[in-house]
Amino acid sequence: MALRMIRLAAGGTRAQGEAQRMVVEKIAAVAEAQVAAISAVLNGHQDHVVVTKTLGAFDRRVRANKRRLSRS
Asked: What is the pLDDT, as a whole number, of residue 68?
């Protein structure tokens, strides 16, 4: 989160692009988490497995963003 805030605070076209990307990523992450949760429920998994699979969708996105933001 700090890496993203630094980029946004810098302003300019990179900050604008980052802000737009952030909104798109949030929508996509929620959709992915919903699919993971629904799939786990329909496959009969226990509640803790449903939660783990749902949070795993967000975790993958967070790690990918950290790698991307750390490179630039």
From this structure: 84
> Is residue 62 a part of any domain in this protein?
yes
Q: Please indicate, yes or no, if residue 37 is contained in any of the structural domains.
A: yes
Integer Cα distance of 50 and 42 in angstroms: 10
Domain count for the chain, please give it.
1
- State the pTM of this model: 0.75
Instruction: Tell whether 4 is covered by a domain.
Output: no
CB–CB of 25/65 below 8 Å? yes
Segment holding 70, helix H or strand E? helix 47-71
Residue 2 placed within a domain: no
pLDDT in tens, 10-46: 889 988 988 998 899 999 999 999 999 999 999 999 9
